[in-house]
Write a structure and sequence with these properties.
With 519 residues, this protein is α/β, with parallel strands linked by helices. It is built from 13 helices and 17 strands. It folds into 3 domains: 222 residues, no CATH class; 118 residues; 90 residues, no CATH class. Strand 14 and strand 15 form a beta hairpin.
Length: 519
């Protein structure tokens, strides 16, 4: 053969700048104790409002709280004609969860099992394989006895996960279910193929493989809501707001612990909590200084309408890829919500009381005899140093995520980010792309008049007496510095690029005051 051309000219091909890190989707996350949600695998239903809602109904059942909340969540349509496109679910682990199988629903007939006289199956508990052999269904006379025979065979195994396990046939859902024994620990679980698929593969006959549509649920002991929230965030932070099912019954002490943990992550997630006439005072007092917490008032009679889902829907329906896509959370009308505050003497709590405590509500006003209801006031708990309006908080979640993704993409795509003027320029360039997007979608406001105090503050933290002019006229001021320091652990000299962006947040007009002068 001839000498290969690569001896003389060796060309390596590849796609440059192809490492793009995803930006977070600001969808809603619902924490639940429902056993159908794996403690180690949050579930995301996507594909648009209609498809996602149908999938949630098929998965949890159309009478479940999960589905009823999803109906409320996906029912919102923004003034820009946008709906939430996805919704996530995570396990709260409020009860102990042994490893479980919820089999594929099917038209099972017991006679299809009687020919299995030397069946095999293999469980995998947190990486440990547990095979079971010699399973015979020859004596089966019903689907219930198929389950009973299998349970007896499994309990003969020495594994502590099987010694007192249960196997049942769920006639309502037409499936076989399995629950492991022993005190649950945090661990993965799955059914693994025992051999060639065929008449002796019991798992296949029962529809217990994930590939068949079965649900294999990992195990977990009881966790505190903070531990469960931490687990979920560590697996995926691809959500913007979250709340808990009513059935999870999260106590005020746990709500406070979760809120404080979330707030410590600094404008990362919005925690939506319902309150009512009996607990709004205590809840507000406990959470008043905690950033990123939205309290929504309702009465006990209206609690099943889940008004706390409203700001989650609004956030999920905000399209940050469109021009002026940002939303004001006040004045948003949400289907299937009944006003809990009407301004009448019959209200259990007055709107002035709720306004003073920064508690949101679905309320009505009246014009020309027409009652008009909308979400009010779109505010959050927290101190003045944190965003106290839901729209500003959500916008900063998006902007921070965009900057994080842009910077990480830069680091992954370039051979190096040099600790010099070149590296500084490259970092400024990717940050400028984030700023351009924020100017496009309305996160950054241009031309907003700054107060004297704001001007002085900007000058103080930048050391630039013209920085406030840039913020007022262009909407932002940006700077990057690169400095070295000695790592306290490795004692190596490391270089850190530090950037500062000061931008004019896009405030919403919340009320209009007019003067009519008649001449």
């Amino acid at each position: 053969m001839p000498t290969p051309i690569t001896k003389y000219v060796n060309i390596t091909s590849g796609v440059g700048a192809g490492n793009n890190v995803a930006i977070r989707q600001l969808i809603g996350m619902l924490f639940t104790n429902n056993v159908l949600v794996d403690p180690l695998i949050p579930i995301v239903f996507s594909g648009g409002a209609v498809a996602a809602l149908a999938a949630i109904g098929a998965y949890f059942g159309t009478t479940s709280e999960e589905y009823l909340r999803a109906v409320q969540y996906f029912g919102y349509v923004s003034p820009s004609i946008r709906q939430p496109q996805a919704m996530a679910f995570a396990q709260n682990c409020g009860v102990a969860m042994p490893a479980s199988v919820y089999g594929k629903a099917g038209s099972y007939v017991y006679t299809n099992f009687t020919s299995i006289v030397a069946g095999v199956m293999t469980f995998n508990f947190n990486g440990t394989s547990v095979p079971v052999t010699g399973i015979s269904f020859a004596a089966a006379t019903t689907l219930a006895t198929v389950a009973s025979i299998l349970q007896t065979a499994l309990r003969l195994n020495a594994s502590p996960y099987l010694s007192t396990c249960t196997v049942t046939y769920d006639a309502v859902n037409s499936r076989f279910d399995f629950v492991a024994s022993g005190a649950p620990v945090q661990g993965t679980f799955s059914m693994t193929q025992a051999g060639a698929l065929g008449t002796t593969d019991v798992s296949a006959a029962l529809g217990w493989y994930i590939s068949q549509g079965a649900l294999n649920v990992s195990s977990s002991p009881v966790l505190t809501p903070v531990q469960a929230f931490t687990n979920a965030v560590n697996i995926s932070n691809n959500f913007g707001s979250f709340c808990y099912t009513t059935a999870s019954a999260v106590a005020l002490a746990d709500q406070t612990a979760v809120a404080q943990y979330s707030a410590a992550m600094n404008v990362a997630f919005m925690y939506s909590i319902p309150v009512n006439p009996s607990n709004y005072v205590a809840t507000q007092a406990a959470l008043a200084s905690v950033a990123g917490v939205g309290l929504t008032y309702s009465t006990a009679a209206l609690a099943s309408q889940y008004p706390e889902m409203a700001p989650m829907s609004i956030m999920a329906a905000t399209d940050y890829t469109s021009r002026n896509g940002v939303q004001n959370y006040m004045y948003r009308q949400v289907p299937n919500l009944t006003a809990s505050v009407t301004g009448q003497s019959t209200d259990a709590v007055s709107y002035t009381t709720l306004d003073g405590l920064l508690i949101n509500y679905y309320g009505t006003t009246q014009q020309a005899g027409q009652n008009i209801a909308f979400y009010q006031d779109g505010v959050l708990m927290g101190l003045s140093t944190s965003p106290q309006f839901m729209n500003i908080f959500a916008n900063e979640i998006w902007f921070k995520s965009y900057c994080q993704s842009a910077i990480l993409s830069l680091q992954l795509s370039l051979p190096q980010l040099a600790a010099n003027a070149t590296g500084k320029g490259q970092l400024l360039a990717v940050l400028q792309s984030a700023i351009n997007e924020a100017l496009f979608n309305g996160v950054i406001s241009v031309g907003k008049t700054l107060t004297t105090l704001q001007q002085l503050y900007i000058t103080s933290i930048t050391g630039d007496d013209k920085a406030w002019i840039a913020v007022q006229n262009s909407g932002y001021w940006m700077n990057v510095t690169i400095a070295s320091s000695v790592d306290p652990v490795s004692h190596l000299t490391i270089y850190t690029a530090t950037y500062t962006i000061i931008y004019s947040k896009n405030d919403s007009v919340r009320s209009v005051s007019g003067t009519h002068v008649l001449i």
